[in-house]
Here is the input.
Amino acid sequence: MLNVSIVIYKHTISDISPLVEILQNSGLVSEIFLIDNSPKENKDFGKLNANYIFNNCNLGYGKAHNIALRKSIAKNTPYHLVVNPDISFEPEILKTIVTYMENHPDVGHLMPKVFYPNGDLQYLCKLLPTPTDLIFRRFLQKNVRDKRMRKFELRESGYNRIMNVPYLSGCFMFLRTEALKVTGIFDERFFMYPEDIDLTRRIHQHFKTIFYPEVAIVHHHAQSSYSSPKMLWIHIINMIRYFNKWGWIFDRERKRINANILIGNTL
Here is the structure.
């Protein structure tokens, strides 16, 4: 019914085993793929009931997940969950999600409500971004930036209803493999950061990409690009690649989709 891929980098077995246990306890998961981008192999992962794949180099987030996604597509596994190592949830939510997906075959991608460990909501439903939203926002005045981010992150929606959103976070991507056969998998030109924007957008062109607040997960999230100059540079370079692909100023599809979202046409 469901395969899962987790990309790891310098993680320990104690970091990963709680999530693996949650997935196993759901009763739905066929295979768990641990895709290791670390510089050194960690044989401890062989103790887990998972398919451990060591890449011997850092392929990047999307390219590493694609190793497992190709296997799910080839085996016609109905669903594939792309999930970050720092996610926790109750195993039962996967049954609720599968039931919703089975009853809504027009949905290609689903993300639940996401909280920080302290209970604060993470605003991960977003419009398709402009360069200002993702590259130049750091340089705006605080009041201008805050107003723009409220709009970009759809905060006025209340995050309390099901919405068809064109940009959902890559921390938990519940994907229909039949949709991926139509849209393709992660674009491997993106090392990390915009790969979730790009894939959600491509799925959104043909299927619904749903924010589903009936279930929730916890994301122990750290914005490394805000604290690491190296990660900031990687972020900027990959966002340049994203806008080179989709358009910087002139992006008619972005304008149309965002306008529909803002006037309430979200289902």
Notes: The CA atoms of residues 164 and 210 lie 5 Å apart. The chain has nine helices and eleven strands. The chain has a mean pLDDT of 93. Residues 2-262 form a domain with the Spore Coat Polysaccharide Biosynthesis Protein SpsA; Chain A fold (CATH 3.90.550.10).
